[in-house]
UniProtKB/TrEMBL annotation:
It is an enzyme of class 1 (oxidoreductase). Residues 1-28 form the signal peptide. It is found in: Cell envelope. This is nitrite reductase (cytochrome; ammonia-forming).
């Protein structure tokens, strides 16, 4: 297949400023340094394909505050694993990510680019496994069209990512698009359905793509796991213990469902993209969705519109209120980890002794499910309560359920 042709608009980002030029794009370089500021100082360049008659150059000329705030993420988000974790740095991070794009191909743009959506419209599921080398220079990273209809900034919101278009409709079409545009990337199905064994099964016809639906049972961890396994997802099994792992990344839109935040009519962008005021007094929607609301005075002020009823009177108190909630979940997770370690040892010993039994298999299942429950509550990583604001009651409940599962498994093998 020949490489897609496109017109280019490439931003050159230096020391927090955005200088826009138009040229053919080279592949994004590896990010080097200990902070996002270091990455910006390194004069990072990235490829952005023009969307219809719009481009970053055009968008910035019309919406300078929004576009510049988007790139502020480079300076404000901490670097780790050799990458700067901000939306503005996606084009630089993916080529050097742990999930090698040479292996996963265009699945690496399943949720981050409208280029992937165009490929999906052209070739269906084959769009998830095209060679990375053929498209790495023609990828439109997180452009306005990913969230705005017809790539019109300030216009109607609607998700437009490849994975969301292929697998997320059941949920994303049923919720406020202020949630859906974030949920198109921050979901569990991206890692489960878009690459690996299940995708290959769908591409070969072994699994009927039209029959899969990640959300047919619901958005809680048990329902998501049940649907994925029925659809043909195969868990990795540790040969030493026989323990299976349900690997799903950042299930954040899922845990937000039914939360007190959602019930109050809030969406992701209310806290992560608050209205700010420029130096000359112009209000605008911040597009630096990468920074923590705890470091954003406007976001904290917005929190106070509800939390003053709980006796929180200042942004400093609001920040401490959230940190206390985070710590309470982290403390629960510490209990879980202790019991998880104990159960792992019991399973390992029983497996080594060739003591296969119904009790051992049940203990393995409890270990697998409990571990997934905590991963679900954590937002898909080792965040230990940092994302408690997404669902304050739900996170505690799921971690507690996971603790109970560890206790049940320990009792079975003790």
């Amino acid at each position: 297949m020949s490489k897609a042709k496109a017109s280019w608009a490439k931003p050159l980002i230096m020391a927090g400023a955005v200088i826009l030029t138009v040229s053919c794009a080279a592949c994004a370089p590896k990010v080097v340094g200990d902070s996002a500021g270091d990455a910006a100082d390194a004069a990072v360049t990235g490829a952005f394909v023009q969307t219809k008659d719009a481009s970053w150059e055009k968008w910035r000329s019309e919406y300078p505050l929004e576009v510049d705030s988007f790139f502020d993420g480079m300076d404000e988000v901490e670097a780790w694993d050799g990458k700067v974790h901000s939306h503005a740095m996606l084009y630089a991070n993916v080529p050097v990510s742990a999930a090698d794009p040479q292996t996963n191909g265009t699945a690496c743009i399943a949720c981050k680019s409208t280029t992937g959506t165009k490929l999906y419209e052209e070739m269906g599921l084959d769009s998830f496994s095209q060679p990375w080398d053929e498209y790495e220079d023609s990828i439109d990273w997180w452009d306005c069209g990913l969230c705005h209809v017809d790539a019109t900034p300030g216009g109607e919101l609607h998700y437009n990512g490849m994975a969301a278009t292929a697998f997320g409709g059941t949920l994303l079409d049923s919720i406020d698009q202020k949630q859906a545009v974030c949920g198109q990337c921050h979901n569990y199905y991206g890692a489960v359905y878009t690459r690996g064994g299940l995708m290959k099964k769908m591409q070969s016809g072994e699994v009927d793509y039209n029959s899969v639906d990640p959300y047919r049972y619901g958005t809680d961890p048990e329902s998501l796991m049940k649907a994925a396994l029925e659809d043909g997802y195969e868990m990795n099994v540790d040969p030493e213990t026989g323990i299976a792992t349900f690997q799903a990344n950042h299930p954040e839109i899922e845990i937000f469902q039914g939360s007190v935040m959602q019930e109050e009519g809030l969406a992701c962008i209310d806290c992560h993209m608050p209205t700010k005021t420029s130096e000359d007094g112009q209000p605008y929607t911040s597009h630096n969705a990468s920074s923590s609301p705890l470091e954003n005075e406007e976001a904290l002020e917005f929190c106070l519109t509800c939390h003053t009823e709980q006796g929180v009177e200042s942004t400093d108190e609001m920040k401490q209120f959230v940190k206390d909630a985070q710590q309470s979940v982290a403390d629960l997770e510490a209990q879980f980890t202790e019991k998880q370690t104990q159960l792992h040892g019991l399973i390992k010993d029983a497996t080594a002794a060739a003591e296969e039994s119904d009790a051992l298999n049940e203990a393995r299942d409890l270990y697998t499910r409990g571990t997934w429950y905590v991963r679900y509550a954590d937002g898909g990583g080792d965040f230990k309560g940092q994302k408690v604001a997404h669902n304050p009651y739900g996170e505690r409940e799921y971690v507690q359920q996971a603790i109970d599962m560890m206790d049940q498994g320990i009792a079975l093998l003790s």
